Each structure stands twice: as C-alpha cells, then as structure tokens.
Amino acid sequence: MAALARRGYRIVERNYRCRWGEIDIIARDGETLVFVEVKAKRSGDFLPPTFAVTSRKQRTLVKVATDYLIRKKLFQTPCRFDVVSVIWPAGGEPKWEIIAGAFEADPDLV
Predict the structure, then answer these.
(1) pLDDT by 10s per residue, the chain, length 110
(2) CA-CA distance, 77 to 49, in Å (whole number)?
(3) What does pTM read for this prediction?
(4) Radius of gyration of the chain from Cα atoms?
(5) Coiled-coil intervals in this record (predicted)?
(6) How far apart are CA 110 and CA 107, in angstroms?
C-alpha cells in the first residue's frame, strides 16, 4: 500500500489469518510493529469508514495480533493498532487517512 510506504511503514505481511480472524496489513514503523485495519467507502456515505472499526472488530484484531506475536515469538516488540480510512469520491482519486494508534489493546479482551 503506497500510502503507508510514503509514511515510512515497511509492509511485513498482508492478510494475516488465524482462527480468530484476519488483519489486513502488518507493518513496521521504525521499531514498532503495526497492525493495520483498512476500511474503505464511497463518498456520500453518512459515516466515515473508521466507524466500521467497532469495539467488536477491535477485540478481533487484538486476538489476531496476539496470535501473530505468539507465533512469531515477538513478545517484547512494541506494537500499535492503526486504521487506514479510504474514501472513494465518484470519478475522483481516493483520499487516504492513516490514523496511527487508533485504539489501544485491552488485555482483558484477549
């Protein structure tokens, strides 16, 4: 994803899947491992795409991220959760917004 690369992210993995669900992109931003959820909508929709990252979706992402960290033995790695919002205007270029640290992992939810 070019928008992330322009901001200095290095893509590690795409569409990581496990029994809990899927994470769209796993990337590095410096020393930080970033779990990225991408949400897109056409312009004219009432709510921005980020509203689709509900508390339920956040719980799923935390579980999948935990699975990834355990499988890769990345126990001491600093991590965060970002959301990329993409709005596609009719006949125009998409507008990207990267929300770094969009939500925190609640250990009680894992």
Answers:
(1) 788 989 999 999 999 999 999 999 999 999 999 999 998 877 666 666 677 788 899 999 999 999 999 999 998 999 999 999 888 777 788 888 899 999 988 766 55
(2) 29
(3) 0.88
(4) 14
(5) none
(6) 6
CATH number for domain 1-33+55-80, candidates 3.40.1350.10, 3.40.50.2020, 3.30.300.20, 3.40.50.11030: 3.40.1350.10
Structure tokens that stand for 79 in this block: 């991590």
Tokens of 53: 């990252």
3 state SS for 30-71: CCEEEEEEEEEEECCCCCCHHHHCCHHHHHHHHHHHHHHHHH
CA distance 65 to 81: 9
Q: Annotate 38-70 with b (16+ C-beta within 10 A) or e (fewer).
A: bbebeeeeeeebeeebeeeebbbbbbbbbbbbe
